[in-house]
Amino acid sequence: MPPSQSKRKKNSKRPKSPDKTGPKSARRQFGKPRNTIAKSSSKRVGKLFEDLVAVQARLRAPGGCPWDREQTHSTLRTYLIEEAYEVLDAIEKGNSQELAEELGDLLLQVLFHADMARETGAFDITDVITAIHDKMIRRHPHVFGDVKADTAGEVLKNWAELKAKEKQAASTEVASSQKTIPSAFDGVPRTLPALLEAYQMTRRAAHVGFDWENIGGVFDKLEEETAELQAALAASDHRTAEEEVGDILFSVVNLARFLKLDPEVTLKHSNLKFKERFQEMEREASRSGLSLAELSKEELEVLWVGAKAKALGKGSTGSKP
Fold first, then answer.
1. DSSP codes, 102-137
2. I want to staple 244 with a disulfide (CB 3.0 to 4.6 A). Which of 122, 125, 213, 229 is the partner?
3. Residue 244 lies in a domain
4. What is the CA radius of gyration of the chain?
5. pLDDT at 66
6. Do 73 and 116 contact (CB within 8 A), yes or no?
């Protein structure tokens, strides 16, 4: 069955939270799952997994689901991204039942791709499981070996070093007969959204020791990039200005990472905050029979201040984006 139909069916089962409550914070503890989840966890995991693999194989087999049989690795890319973001949304809401459901949808995407690969003889789900099982053992010598790592930072540094060694061992000769030089950035896809790509690269650079000693250095970098942008604007140099804006965004990602914050999550929070306050402005203007486009900048500012005050009165935090 196509994911779009599945989503409609799934969403119809989800109880809607009252608007006045707003979304739950990701920091809020998850509530207890329903009894159905608790009961299913008592079943043998291996048998449950085998049954799910069989279901997916049946959908792709002759006489199965026409939609499933038409899919390819390429056509499923959008759904894979969609399911990953729905998992993030469930985490943000703090809804354990919804999180379990969304994780199931994401797992199905893994099985879907593995089953298509099985049909071509490339690999199957056992290869996927074996690969990640062996990698977890190999990348955690402080747990399964005799390597010492007492802090999360040491674990991440060891992880980066091990990954680099693996890449080096697997590298092949290029046309110049020189082996490719392994990089800490190997495995960071260029297809990632820019924000996530910057976060991943700065994290990996920090894992090998390329990082500021303290947060003051990050702020200094921000000031430097801001000054360079102002200079580019003063010179009416649009191309340089574009580059400097990118440098500022990159520096802000570094700031979030240095503070142990995920920039994607923090920006999502700000996006939602702005959306709620802007929609409050629209509602307030509508009560007067007007649209925001009909108001002056001064009137818009008054509405913004009012929406912000109303949100803060309900316990919202933060300032004007």
1. HHHHHHHHHHHHHHHHHHHTS--HHHHHHHHHHHHH
2. 229
3. no
4. 25
5. 95
6. yes
H-type alpha helices, the chain: 3-13, 35-40, 45-60, 66-70, 77-93, 96-120, 125-139, 141-144, 152-170, 194-207, 215-234, 238-258, 263-287, 297-313
Question: d(Cα 152, Cα 159) in Å, to the nearest integer?
Answer: 10
Tens digit of each residue's pLDDT (9 = 90 or more) over 149-163: 888 888 888 887 887
Per-residue pLDDT at 175 exceeds 60: no
- Residue after which a domain boundary falls, among 123, 139, 155: 139
CATH number of the domain within which 110 lies: 1.10.287.1080
List Cβ neighbours of 311 (8 Å cut-off, separation of 6 or more). 273, 276, 277, 280
Q: What is the pTM of this model?
A: 0.55
pLDDT in tens, 111-137: 999 999 999 999 999 999 999 999 999
Domain range for 76 is: 38-139
In-domain check, residue 148 = no
